[in-house]
Amino acid sequence: MSHTARTQGPSEHMGRRTVVTGGAGFVGSHLCRALLAAGDSVVCLDNLSTGRLRNIGDLLDRPRFTFLNADVVEPFAISGRVDLVLHLACPASPVDYFRMPVATLRAGGHGTYNALSLARDKGARFVVTSTSEVYGDPLVHPQREDYWGNVNPVGPRACYDESKRFSEALTVAFRDEYGVDTGIARLFNSYGPDMRGGDGRVVPTFIKQALAGKPLTVMGDGSQTRSLCYVTDTVRAILALAGSYETSPVNIGNPHEITMRELAEYIITLTGSASPVRYVEAHPDDPQRRRPDIGRARRVLDWEPEVRLFDGLKETIASFTPAGDLSAV
Ligand code: UDP
Protein backbone atom coordinates (compact mmCIF):
# COMPACT_ATOMS: atom_id res chain seq x y z
CA MET A 1 0.00 0.00 0.00
CA SER A 2 1.45 3.37 -0.94
CA HIS A 3 1.92 6.27 1.46
CA THR A 4 -0.96 8.13 -0.17
CA ALA A 5 -3.54 5.42 0.51
CA ARG A 6 -5.45 5.45 3.76
CA THR A 7 -4.72 2.19 5.49
CA GLN A 8 -8.21 1.16 6.38
CA GLY A 9 -10.01 -2.14 6.28
CA PRO A 10 -13.70 -2.41 5.54
CA SER A 11 -14.52 -2.45 9.27
CA GLU A 12 -12.89 0.96 9.75
CA HIS A 13 -15.25 2.68 7.36
CA MET A 14 -18.35 0.85 8.60
CA GLY A 15 -21.08 3.43 8.77
CA ARG A 16 -19.71 5.70 6.03
CA ARG A 17 -22.57 7.45 4.24
CA THR A 18 -21.94 7.68 0.52
CA VAL A 19 -23.82 9.49 -2.23
CA VAL A 20 -23.49 7.98 -5.72
CA THR A 21 -24.74 10.13 -8.60
CA GLY A 22 -25.54 7.98 -11.61
CA GLY A 23 -25.94 5.05 -9.24
CA ALA A 24 -28.49 3.28 -11.47
CA GLY A 25 -26.11 3.23 -14.42
CA PHE A 26 -23.86 0.40 -15.46
CA VAL A 27 -20.76 1.20 -13.36
CA GLY A 28 -22.81 3.05 -10.73
CA SER A 29 -25.02 0.09 -9.88
CA HIS A 30 -22.05 -2.24 -9.46
CA LEU A 31 -20.45 0.43 -7.29
CA CYS A 32 -23.56 0.78 -5.07
CA ARG A 33 -23.58 -2.99 -4.54
CA ALA A 34 -19.88 -3.01 -3.60
CA LEU A 35 -20.33 -0.07 -1.20
CA LEU A 36 -23.20 -1.82 0.58
CA ALA A 37 -21.07 -4.95 0.85
CA ALA A 38 -18.31 -2.83 2.42
CA GLY A 39 -20.69 -1.54 5.10
CA ASP A 40 -21.60 1.89 3.68
CA SER A 41 -25.04 3.45 3.65
CA VAL A 42 -25.72 4.48 0.08
CA VAL A 43 -27.82 7.29 -1.37
CA CYS A 44 -28.17 6.60 -5.08
CA LEU A 45 -29.20 9.59 -7.17
CA ASP A 46 -30.17 9.01 -10.80
CA ASN A 47 -32.59 10.59 -13.29
CA LEU A 48 -32.85 7.27 -15.18
CA SER A 49 -32.07 8.93 -18.52
CA THR A 50 -29.55 6.22 -19.34
CA GLY A 51 -29.51 4.31 -16.04
CA ARG A 52 -32.18 1.72 -15.29
CA LEU A 53 -34.16 0.82 -12.19
CA ARG A 54 -33.61 -2.86 -12.96
CA ASN A 55 -29.87 -2.37 -12.39
CA ILE A 56 -30.62 -1.58 -8.73
CA GLY A 57 -33.80 -3.66 -8.38
CA ASP A 58 -32.15 -6.01 -5.89
CA LEU A 59 -31.02 -3.05 -3.73
CA LEU A 60 -34.24 -1.06 -3.41
CA ASP A 61 -35.48 -2.77 -0.25
CA ARG A 62 -32.08 -2.97 1.44
CA PRO A 63 -32.12 -0.97 4.71
CA ARG A 64 -28.91 0.96 4.01
CA PHE A 65 -29.92 1.90 0.45
CA THR A 66 -31.93 4.95 -0.64
CA PHE A 67 -32.85 5.76 -4.23
CA LEU A 68 -33.50 9.38 -5.23
CA ASN A 69 -35.05 9.83 -8.65
CA ALA A 70 -33.43 13.20 -9.30
CA ASP A 71 -31.29 14.98 -11.86
CA VAL A 72 -27.89 16.04 -10.55
CA VAL A 73 -27.93 19.10 -12.84
CA GLU A 74 -30.85 20.57 -10.84
CA PRO A 75 -30.30 21.73 -7.25
CA PHE A 76 -30.99 18.92 -4.77
CA ALA A 77 -30.69 18.52 -1.01
CA ILE A 78 -29.54 15.55 1.01
CA SER A 79 -30.15 15.84 4.72
CA GLY A 80 -27.82 14.47 7.36
CA ARG A 81 -24.19 13.45 7.25
CA VAL A 82 -22.40 12.62 4.00
CA ASP A 83 -18.85 11.25 4.11
CA LEU A 84 -18.22 10.52 0.45
CA VAL A 85 -19.64 11.77 -2.86
CA LEU A 86 -18.97 9.67 -5.96
CA HIS A 87 -20.03 11.59 -9.08
CA LEU A 88 -20.70 9.26 -12.00
CA ALA A 89 -23.86 10.76 -13.51
CA CYS A 90 -23.37 11.41 -17.24
CA PRO A 91 -24.39 9.72 -20.48
CA ALA A 92 -21.33 7.61 -21.34
CA SER A 93 -22.10 5.75 -24.56
CA PRO A 94 -21.37 7.63 -27.80
CA VAL A 95 -24.87 6.78 -29.05
CA ASP A 96 -26.38 8.38 -25.94
CA TYR A 97 -24.26 11.50 -25.88
CA PHE A 98 -24.65 12.10 -29.62
CA ARG A 99 -28.42 12.09 -28.89
CA MET A 100 -28.21 14.39 -25.83
CA PRO A 101 -25.16 16.63 -26.23
CA VAL A 102 -26.53 19.47 -24.11
CA ALA A 103 -27.58 17.19 -21.24
CA THR A 104 -24.10 15.61 -21.43
CA LEU A 105 -22.39 18.98 -21.08
CA ARG A 106 -24.75 19.99 -18.28
CA ALA A 107 -23.95 16.77 -16.39
CA GLY A 108 -20.28 17.73 -16.45
CA GLY A 109 -21.00 21.42 -15.74
CA HIS A 110 -24.01 21.97 -13.48
CA GLY A 111 -24.00 18.34 -12.32
CA THR A 112 -20.38 18.40 -11.23
CA TYR A 113 -20.91 21.81 -9.62
CA ASN A 114 -23.86 20.49 -7.57
CA ALA A 115 -22.05 17.30 -6.58
CA LEU A 116 -18.93 19.23 -5.57
CA SER A 117 -21.02 21.74 -3.61
CA LEU A 118 -22.60 18.88 -1.71
CA ALA A 119 -19.14 17.53 -0.83
CA ARG A 120 -17.97 21.01 0.22
CA ASP A 121 -21.03 21.67 2.38
CA LYS A 122 -20.83 18.27 4.07
CA GLY A 123 -17.06 18.11 4.41
CA ALA A 124 -17.06 14.90 2.35
CA ARG A 125 -14.42 13.41 0.08
CA PHE A 126 -15.38 13.76 -3.60
CA VAL A 127 -14.41 11.51 -6.49
CA VAL A 128 -15.46 12.15 -10.08
CA THR A 129 -15.36 9.44 -12.72
CA SER A 130 -13.68 11.09 -15.65
CA THR A 131 -12.70 9.25 -18.80
CA SER A 132 -9.96 8.23 -21.19
CA GLU A 133 -11.82 10.52 -23.63
CA VAL A 134 -10.01 13.45 -22.02
CA TYR A 135 -7.08 12.20 -24.14
CA GLY A 136 -9.25 12.45 -27.29
CA ASP A 137 -7.70 10.67 -30.27
CA PRO A 138 -4.35 10.34 -28.51
CA LEU A 139 -1.02 11.09 -30.15
CA VAL A 140 0.81 9.43 -27.25
CA HIS A 141 0.52 5.72 -26.63
CA PRO A 142 -0.12 4.26 -24.10
CA GLN A 143 -1.75 7.20 -22.33
CA ARG A 144 -0.27 8.48 -19.08
CA GLU A 145 -2.00 10.94 -16.80
CA ASP A 146 0.45 13.71 -17.67
CA TYR A 147 -0.59 13.63 -21.36
CA TRP A 148 -2.90 16.61 -22.10
CA GLY A 149 -4.75 14.97 -24.95
CA ASN A 150 -5.83 15.60 -28.52
CA VAL A 151 -9.45 16.68 -28.39
CA ASN A 152 -11.48 18.37 -31.11
CA PRO A 153 -13.48 20.97 -29.13
CA VAL A 154 -16.11 21.34 -31.87
CA GLY A 155 -16.30 17.71 -33.01
CA PRO A 156 -19.21 15.33 -32.40
CA ARG A 157 -17.55 13.83 -29.32
CA ALA A 158 -16.80 17.27 -27.85
CA CYS A 159 -19.95 17.20 -25.71
CA TYR A 160 -18.56 14.26 -23.76
CA ASP A 161 -14.85 14.96 -23.89
CA GLU A 162 -15.14 18.62 -22.94
CA SER A 163 -17.81 17.86 -20.33
CA LYS A 164 -15.37 15.55 -18.58
CA ARG A 165 -12.43 17.89 -19.03
CA PHE A 166 -14.51 20.67 -17.48
CA SER A 167 -15.48 18.29 -14.64
CA GLU A 168 -11.82 17.72 -13.91
CA ALA A 169 -11.01 21.44 -14.01
CA LEU A 170 -13.94 22.25 -11.70
CA THR A 171 -12.86 19.50 -9.31
CA VAL A 172 -9.38 21.01 -9.10
CA ALA A 173 -10.89 24.50 -8.64
CA PHE A 174 -13.03 23.33 -5.70
CA ARG A 175 -9.96 21.77 -4.16
CA ASP A 176 -7.89 24.94 -4.60
CA GLU A 177 -10.56 27.46 -3.63
CA TYR A 178 -12.57 25.60 -0.99
CA GLY A 179 -10.18 22.90 0.17
CA VAL A 180 -12.47 20.03 -0.84
CA ASP A 181 -10.79 16.61 -0.58
CA THR A 182 -11.00 15.45 -4.22
CA GLY A 183 -10.01 12.55 -6.45
CA ILE A 184 -10.25 12.08 -10.23
CA ALA A 185 -10.68 8.61 -11.76
CA ARG A 186 -10.05 8.42 -15.51
CA LEU A 187 -11.98 5.33 -16.53
CA PHE A 188 -11.04 3.53 -19.73
CA ASN A 189 -13.59 1.26 -21.42
CA SER A 190 -15.35 -0.93 -18.86
CA TYR A 191 -17.67 -3.82 -19.60
CA GLY A 192 -19.68 -6.41 -17.75
CA PRO A 193 -23.19 -7.55 -16.84
CA ASP A 194 -25.97 -4.92 -16.73
CA MET A 195 -24.83 -2.92 -19.74
CA ARG A 196 -27.90 -1.96 -21.76
CA GLY A 197 -28.09 -4.17 -24.83
CA GLY A 198 -29.13 -1.20 -26.92
CA ASP A 199 -26.69 1.32 -25.51
CA GLY A 200 -24.54 1.17 -28.63
CA ARG A 201 -21.27 0.34 -26.92
CA VAL A 202 -19.18 -2.26 -28.57
CA VAL A 203 -19.32 -5.16 -26.08
CA PRO A 204 -23.10 -5.36 -25.55
CA THR A 205 -23.71 -4.64 -29.24
CA PHE A 206 -21.47 -7.46 -30.46
CA ILE A 207 -22.83 -9.89 -27.85
CA LYS A 208 -26.44 -9.18 -28.74
CA GLN A 209 -25.70 -9.47 -32.44
CA ALA A 210 -23.78 -12.74 -31.99
CA LEU A 211 -26.50 -14.30 -29.83
CA ALA A 212 -29.16 -13.29 -32.38
CA GLY A 213 -27.13 -14.71 -35.29
CA LYS A 214 -26.96 -11.26 -36.86
CA PRO A 215 -23.85 -9.70 -38.44
CA LEU A 216 -21.45 -8.03 -36.01
CA THR A 217 -21.17 -4.38 -37.04
CA VAL A 218 -17.47 -3.58 -36.95
CA MET A 219 -16.98 0.14 -37.54
CA GLY A 220 -14.34 1.34 -39.99
CA ASP A 221 -11.81 -1.36 -40.83
CA GLY A 222 -11.83 -2.64 -37.25
CA SER A 223 -8.16 -1.91 -36.69
CA GLN A 224 -8.93 0.65 -33.96
CA THR A 225 -8.10 -0.60 -30.48
CA ARG A 226 -9.62 -0.43 -27.04
CA SER A 227 -8.49 -1.85 -23.69
CA LEU A 228 -11.39 -3.42 -21.86
CA CYS A 229 -11.61 -3.52 -18.09
CA TYR A 230 -14.08 -5.81 -16.34
CA VAL A 231 -16.47 -3.85 -14.14
CA THR A 232 -15.51 -5.49 -10.83
CA ASP A 233 -11.91 -4.39 -11.42
CA THR A 234 -13.10 -0.86 -12.25
CA VAL A 235 -15.21 -0.70 -9.10
CA ARG A 236 -12.36 -1.97 -6.92
CA ALA A 237 -10.17 0.84 -8.23
CA ILE A 238 -12.81 3.54 -7.65
CA LEU A 239 -13.21 2.31 -4.06
CA ALA A 240 -9.46 2.33 -3.54
CA LEU A 241 -9.27 5.90 -4.84
CA ALA A 242 -12.21 6.93 -2.66
CA GLY A 243 -10.41 5.49 0.36
CA SER A 244 -7.14 7.25 -0.42
CA TYR A 245 -5.87 10.83 -0.20
CA GLU A 246 -4.82 10.81 -3.86
CA THR A 247 -5.60 14.10 -5.60
CA SER A 248 -4.03 13.65 -9.05
CA PRO A 249 -5.99 12.00 -11.87
CA VAL A 250 -5.56 8.22 -11.91
CA ASN A 251 -6.04 6.04 -15.01
CA ILE A 252 -8.27 3.07 -14.28
CA GLY A 253 -8.33 0.49 -17.02
CA ASN A 254 -6.93 -2.76 -18.28
CA PRO A 255 -3.76 -2.38 -20.36
CA HIS A 256 -4.67 -5.44 -22.47
CA GLU A 257 -5.29 -3.87 -25.90
CA ILE A 258 -7.34 -5.49 -28.64
CA THR A 259 -8.56 -4.42 -32.10
CA MET A 260 -12.31 -4.24 -32.64
CA ARG A 261 -11.97 -6.82 -35.44
CA GLU A 262 -10.30 -9.24 -33.00
CA LEU A 263 -12.96 -8.50 -30.40
CA ALA A 264 -15.73 -9.35 -32.89
CA GLU A 265 -14.06 -12.63 -33.80
CA TYR A 266 -13.50 -13.48 -30.12
CA ILE A 267 -17.15 -12.88 -29.24
CA ILE A 268 -18.28 -14.98 -32.21
CA THR A 269 -16.07 -17.82 -30.94
CA LEU A 270 -17.16 -17.51 -27.29
CA THR A 271 -20.85 -17.49 -28.17
CA GLY A 272 -20.48 -20.29 -30.72
CA SER A 273 -22.29 -18.00 -33.16
CA ALA A 274 -22.40 -18.40 -36.92
CA SER A 275 -22.69 -14.61 -37.37
CA PRO A 276 -20.53 -12.95 -39.99
CA VAL A 277 -18.74 -9.63 -39.52
CA ARG A 278 -20.08 -6.60 -41.40
CA TYR A 279 -17.95 -3.49 -41.82
CA VAL A 280 -19.95 -0.29 -41.37
CA GLU A 281 -19.16 3.40 -41.33
CA ALA A 282 -17.16 4.56 -38.32
CA HIS A 283 -18.28 7.30 -35.94
CA PRO A 284 -16.53 10.58 -36.80
CA ASP A 285 -13.41 11.24 -34.70
CA ASP A 286 -13.39 7.63 -33.43
CA PRO A 287 -10.15 7.36 -31.41
CA GLN A 288 -7.81 4.94 -33.16
CA ARG A 289 -5.80 3.61 -30.23
CA ARG A 290 -6.47 3.56 -26.54
CA ARG A 291 -4.50 1.85 -23.79
CA PRO A 292 -3.92 3.10 -20.26
CA ASP A 293 -0.59 3.36 -18.56
CA ILE A 294 -1.62 2.21 -15.08
CA GLY A 295 1.70 2.82 -13.35
CA ARG A 296 0.17 5.47 -11.10
CA ALA A 297 -2.79 3.26 -10.08
CA ARG A 298 -0.37 0.45 -9.24
CA ARG A 299 1.77 2.82 -7.20
CA VAL A 300 -0.78 4.92 -5.31
CA LEU A 301 -3.73 2.52 -5.07
CA ASP A 302 -1.87 -0.80 -5.05
CA TRP A 303 -4.37 -1.81 -7.74
CA GLU A 304 -4.28 -3.66 -10.99
CA PRO A 305 -6.98 -5.48 -12.95
CA GLU A 306 -7.40 -9.18 -12.24
CA VAL A 307 -10.16 -10.42 -14.55
CA ARG A 308 -9.00 -11.77 -17.90
CA LEU A 309 -10.96 -10.83 -21.03
CA PHE A 310 -11.98 -14.47 -21.50
CA ASP A 311 -13.58 -14.71 -18.04
CA GLY A 312 -15.12 -11.25 -18.15
CA LEU A 313 -16.68 -11.80 -21.56
CA LYS A 314 -18.04 -15.20 -20.45
CA GLU A 315 -19.83 -13.56 -17.49
CA THR A 316 -21.08 -10.72 -19.66
CA ILE A 317 -22.37 -13.05 -22.37
CA ALA A 318 -24.13 -15.15 -19.69
CA SER A 319 -25.93 -12.03 -18.47
CA PHE A 320 -27.39 -11.58 -21.97
CA THR A 321 -28.70 -15.16 -22.25
CA PRO A 322 -32.24 -15.69 -20.93
CA ALA A 323 -31.34 -17.56 -17.75
CA GLY A 324 -27.81 -16.24 -17.38
CA ASP A 325 -26.85 -19.68 -18.65
CA LEU A 326 -23.08 -20.13 -18.62
CA SER A 327 -23.24 -23.59 -20.20
CA ALA A 328 -24.26 -21.96 -23.47
CA VAL A 329 -21.11 -19.85 -23.43
N1 UDP B 1 -17.63 -0.16 -32.40
C1 UDP B 1 -17.84 -1.07 -33.41
N2 UDP B 1 -19.12 -1.52 -33.60
C2 UDP B 1 -20.17 -1.14 -32.82
C3 UDP B 1 -19.94 -0.23 -31.76
C4 UDP B 1 -18.64 0.26 -31.58
O1 UDP B 1 -16.91 -1.44 -34.14
O2 UDP B 1 -21.29 -1.61 -33.07
C5 UDP B 1 -16.27 0.34 -32.17
C6 UDP B 1 -16.18 1.87 -32.20
O3 UDP B 1 -15.90 2.28 -33.51
C7 UDP B 1 -15.03 2.14 -31.27
C8 UDP B 1 -15.01 0.96 -30.32
O4 UDP B 1 -15.85 -0.03 -30.89
O5 UDP B 1 -13.81 2.16 -31.98
C9 UDP B 1 -15.55 1.30 -28.93
O6 UDP B 1 -16.78 1.95 -29.08
P1 UDP B 1 -17.73 2.22 -27.86
O7 UDP B 1 -18.95 2.88 -28.41
O8 UDP B 1 -17.94 0.98 -27.06
O9 UDP B 1 -16.95 3.22 -26.88
P2 UDP B 1 -15.87 4.38 -27.08
O10 UDP B 1 -14.58 3.76 -26.65
O11 UDP B 1 -15.82 4.82 -28.51
O12 UDP B 1 -16.34 5.44 -26.17
From TrEMBL:
NAD-dependent epimerase/dehydratase domain: residues covered: 19-253
InterPro entries associated with the record: Epimerase_deHydtase, NAD(P)-bd_dom_sf, UXS-like
Superkingdom, taxonomy of origin: Bacteria
Keywords: Decarboxylase, Lyase, NAD, Plasmid
Record carries keyword Lyase: yes
Cofactor: NAD(+)
Coiled coil: none
Pfam families: Epimerase
Keyword Transmembrane helix in annotation: no
Protein name: SDR family oxidoreductase
Organism: Streptomyces castrisilvae
Lineage: Bacteria, Bacillati, Actinomycetota, Actinomycetes, Kitasatosporales
